[in-house]
Structures are given as structure tokens and as C-alpha cells.
């Protein structure tokens, strides 16, 4: 049960919930008060999947919930982007009227890393925006992994320098 109140709904209400299994029933009444508040008309977006620090792999369905009180959900513009290892954001999707709540993401060609970030941005017809971000881990079982041994992150090097790395793949020597 969801009720998005606005300033016209100010007052006291009694709501009765009834549970009935066909033989017996039970009910409960609650009294609620709706204050005279101003509700934001800006869009809202929440990433549902992946959850914070979830490990994802292979083909993954990203899910979000986006809405705006001034227009239909389907008419909102959604932009999905990701980043990792300090790179700029890469765009997965950026279209108009594309708020269907999900995106199928093929992650097999991406590098495994523990610092991925997904950003979802919603824009309404008035140009108002909102976004949500979530951190996640990408670990594709059969994709190769590479790790730098030297240099270390932010290490300053000069002259002739031996760069060392370790690479592995569970399904290949």
C-alpha cells in the first residue's frame, strides 16, 4: 500500500486493513495525520540492483525505481554509467523516455575489480535531475585477471624500470 500525500490531503484519516483467508478474517484500524507539507516535484531514482558491495558477473540485470509526481514513469529519461579504478564514467544507456526499470548488462568483457561504481540519473521533462550511486564488485569466474606487482599505485619511477604483473585465468594456462 503506497500513498503519496500532498497539500490537499491534510487532515486525519482512519485506515482499516483487513486480512481474510476465506474462512476467518482479522482487521486492524490505524489513525494517521497528514500534515500540510509541500512535496517536491523533482524526479526520484533508487538503484535496486546491484545492492551495495554486491558481487556481480556474466550477464547481469541492473534494476532501478524512478518516478516523478508530474509525469508518467515511462516518459522519464534514464542515464546509466559506471566507473572503476579511477577511470572516467562509461555510459551504458542514455536515452529519452526509457524508464523501463531494468538494463541487461553483459559484463564478461570488463576487468574484474572491487571498486566499481554504478550511477543512475533520471531527468524529467522540465530538465530536473536526480541520481543514485552504488558500489559493487565485478568478478567474472572465467575472465582473465591481471594484477600489478610493481610499480605500486602512485609510485614515482624514472630511468629503466622493470614492470611486473601477474595474470591468471581459471580456464586457461
Task: Give me the secondary-structure topology.
Blueprint: E1 11-20, E2 25-34, E3 44-49, E4 54-56, E5 59-67, E6 77-83, E7 90-95, E8 102-106, E9 113-123, E10 129-138, E11 145-150, E12 164-168
Structure notes:
It is built from no helices and 12 strands. It has 173 residues and is an all-beta fold. It is elongated and about 75 Å long. The strands form 4 sheets. Strands 4-10-9-6-7 form a 5-stranded mixed beta sheet, with no helix packed on it.
Numbering strands along the chain, what is their spatial order in the largest sheet? 4-10-9-6-7
Unreliable residue runs:
none
Strand content bin: over 45%
Classification by helices and strands: mainly beta
Rg on CA atoms, Å: 24 Å
In DSSP terms (H or I, runs of 4 or more residues), the helix count works out at 0
Proportion in helices: under 10%
Q: How many β-strands, per DSSP?
A: 12
Please write the string of helix (H) and strand (E) elements.
Answer: EEEEEEEEEEEE
Which whole number gives the mean pLDDT? 87
- Biggest sheet descriptor: 5 strands, mixed
Q: Looking at the structure, what is the overall shape?
A: elongated
From the N-terminal CA to the C-terminal CA, the straight-line distance is 55 Å
Amino acid at each position: 500500500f503506497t500513498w503519496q500525500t500532498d497539500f490537499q490531503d491534510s487532515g486525519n484519516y482512519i485506515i482499516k486493513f483487513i486480512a481474510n483467508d476465506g474462512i476467518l478474517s482479522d482487521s486492524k484500524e490505524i489513525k494517521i495525520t497528514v500534515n500540510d507539507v509541500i512535496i517536491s516535484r523533482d524526479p526520484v531514482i533508487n538503484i535496486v540492483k546491484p545492492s551495495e558491495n554486491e558481487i556481480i558477473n556474466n550477464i547481469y540485470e541492473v534494476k532501478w525505481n524512478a518516478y516523478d509526481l508530474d509525469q508518467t514513469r515511462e516518459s522519464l529519461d534514464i542515464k546509466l554509467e559506471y566507473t572503476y579504478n579511477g577511470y572516467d564514467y562509461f555510459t551504458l544507456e542514455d536515452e529519452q523516455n526509457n524508464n523501463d526499470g531494468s538494463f541487461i548488462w553483459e559484463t564478461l568483457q570488463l576487468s574484474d575489480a572491487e571498486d566499481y561504481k554504478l550511477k543512475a540519473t533520471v531527468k524529467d521533462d522540465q530538465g530536473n535531475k536526480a541520481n543514485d550511486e552504488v558500489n559493487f564488485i565485478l568478478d567474472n569466474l572465467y575472465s582473465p585477471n591481471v594484477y600489478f606487482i610493481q610499480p605500486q599505485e602512485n609510485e614515482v619511477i624514472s630511468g629503466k624500470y622493470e614492470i611486473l604483473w601477474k595474470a591468471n585465468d581459471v580456464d586457461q594456462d
